[in-house]
Amino acid sequence: MKKVISLFMVLVTASCGTPKFYAYHLQNLPRTEQGTIFLETTGLGSSEDAAYNDAAASAFNAVLFKGVPGSVQTAPMIADESRAKNDHKQVIDCFHTFDCYSKFVAQSDKIGMPVKGKDGTSVVLRIKINLRTLRTYLEQNGVIRQFGL
What pTM was computed for the model? Predict the structure, then answer.
């Protein structure tokens, strides 16, 4: 059974200063293999590349800080989001930069055509994240403890 999580994000535009709302979805896909999670998510950005980065960042944000109900990663990898962002800012910021987070991506597929609107470009991305590699990276950088310690 597919579980859909609808989350609402507030985007503030610099030009008018009024808050804009857009909904993005995150969906667990059944093709997850051992040690991976396969998700479908949306992103919004000023360009197509920025929108795909936003979609990937949304997927990593869910896995790291929220968990994905109905998946192999139901609990967040990092229990205390604010502490991790303060104590390990450089490590956490990695998940917003393609050159860094791409080493944890086993597969990514762009779905459909990007949609351009007045708030930017919206895209849909299917992404398979290697949870083992991600966990090892977080352990090596002191963000989480090794299992059993």
Answer: 0.79
